Amino acid sequence: MACAAVTSDRLNLDAVIGEVTLDAEGDGAVATFSGLVRNHNQGRTVLFLEYEAYEPLAVRALTRIIDEARELWPSARLALHHRTGRIDIGDASVVIAAASPHRREAFSACRYAIERVKQIVPIWKHEHFEGGDVWLEGATADPHDEAAKRHAYTVACA
Amino acid sequence: MRVTIRLFARLRDIAGTGELAREIPAPATVASVWAALTEERPSLLEYQRTLSVAINAEYARMTDPVQDGDEIAFLPPVSGG
Predict the structure, then answer these.
(1) Contact, B67 vs B3, CB < 8 A?
(2) Chain A with chain B: Cβ pairs closer than 8 A
(3) Domain limits for position A55
(4) Staple partner for B10: which of A52, A64, A135, B51, CB 3.0–4.6 Å?
(5) Shortest CA distance from B51: residue in chain A
(6) Which CATH number does the domain housing residue A27 bear?
(7) What is the pLDDT of residues A50-78, one digit of tens each?
């Protein structure tokens, strides 16, 4: 699986770790993030989520995030996999790994990546809860929005 | 010219379909494709101010020109992660 991937298969954190730690003898840090489906949201009891993606553009947007992170933290390498389809409570919807010689860049690149996923990747959550279902909507995706990019960078370096 | 329109998430639910083919008079922009679509399905206008658009699976602007055979996607605000 490539460093940027959208798949309906169950995600595997070890897979993204493996992608960033190939030939990584100079690396001293790997930071990871797993996004899980939780059983409650805004007062609702969540039963499961169904994720929909515009897959070719989603892969390009994930690749764009990897490129942006490389520009910001040249010593770090990043891998992101996002899952689609029905995902049950407790299962991962997204897994991210960042490797670098020192921990600061690995943590920052990993945090930056999840913030940017929420801003620009064309994927949508359809929440099925006790009593109904609803499409969740967050950010209007605009990869060229410099203010959004700056916000992600600021959060990543906090 | 002929274009394919792709709709996702709640836009797809509102329209009742995720994919439509339409004849659009040339020259056209993404905005003219959206105008033709919302004339047919006015309830989509709710997304006029918040949508993103793509041409052939690359992010684009409403003012970008559209060519014969293009796939034009209209995307509601995203919620991945």
Answers:
(1) no
(2) 91
(3) 4-156
(4) A135
(5) A140
(6) 3.90.1170.40
(7) 999 999 999 999 999 999 999 999 999 99
Number of H helices, E strands in chain A: 4, 9
Q: Which residues from A are below 8 Å from B when comparing CB atoms? A: 35, 51-54, 56-58, 60-61, 82, 93-94, 114, 117-126, 135-144
Question: Based on the structure, what is the number of domains in chain B?
Answer: 1
Query: B4 - beta bridge partners?
Result: B21, B71
Q: How far is CA A99 from the centre of its chain?
A: 15
Q: How many domains does chain A have?
A: 1
Collect all residues of chain A within an 8 Å Cβ-Cβ radius of residue B73: 54, 57, 122
Average per-residue pLDDT for chain A = 96
> What is the bridge-based pairing of β-strands A4-7 and A77-83?
parallel
pTM value > 0.90: yes
